[in-house]
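Entry for the shared binder. Reason: the reviewer on the internal report wants the predicted structure included alongside the sequence.
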Amino acid sequence: MLKRLNTIRYTYIRSHLYGLFLTTVTLMAIILSIHVLFAPAWLSTPSIFLFIWSYIFLGFIFSIYVGFKSSGDMKDRLDYLSIMIAQLSRGNYSSRIYENEEDEIARVGNELNTLGEKMQSQVKSLQRLADEKAEYAQSAHKAAAIEERQRLARDLHDAVSQQLFALTMMSQASLRLIDRDQEQAKEQLKEIAETALKAQTEMRALLLHLRPVHLSGEPLEIGIHNLVEELKQKCSIEFHMNLEEVEDLSQSTEEHVFRIVQEALSNILRHADATEVTLEIITRNDKLFVHIADNGKGFDVESDQQKKTSYGLKTMRERSEEIGGTFAVRSKQGEGTHIDIRIPL
């Protein structure tokens, strides 16, 4: 209620009521001075009170009415500015606001229009730079392949190799326990099965990174469809896909989007423990929308530990921003993860 009283409409009404109060006090002072000094017969005490209360009553009604009427146009213009700012924050840089007045609000609207034009120009520059970067990336493909092999070697050593070593140790211990304590050996066999499953999942995610960095001339939707079909043969995840054909998409943008989807699916395989994944790539209002969601265990996006270890999320965000897009991730413990990317076309 208090916030509502601070709106522009109620501010106008309050200013009119302040004016009514000041004029009422001034009239009372003038009328009482005439009554005391000259004491005219027509200016009696009842007539003074009748006049003052009538003035206050009518002035209050007119203040409310005029306040609402005069603030309506101002409120609408401020709402237009708010909508314009919201559109810019969502990446809709082609929005414009049109003003017929020549006042301060019109000047702010013109400055927002100029800001939108500059941001739209910067997006085009980013996309042009991304195209140029893609050409340089092709020439540096061998160096990137070597770096990728080194990263995979580190991941294999840090994850799969250690898990296989643990499997070896637990298997040897189970063999020694079979004759002495079959119950404990049975528990260790369960741990061996769980560890083997984790190692298998980790290996699938690493193999996913071994796919070619480029789409090899395939359209984006076909490349992603082939990637998902390959994953279906190796894991029990159920995929729900809505992949629209995107025309006139630059090669660098296609490659960035493909790598973002590849990274997201890899993260789901390694960390999410999900059984269902939703993947959508659609175009609306000259924008490309990418939505990736899973029903896995989720995580706390704001935790310090997550911010330090979320290398995959950082990579996806950087790739989105390189082509002028916006990246958003939503997740909660036990409620899965949702990734939304919006890229201007």
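Summary line for the report: The mean pLDDT is 78.
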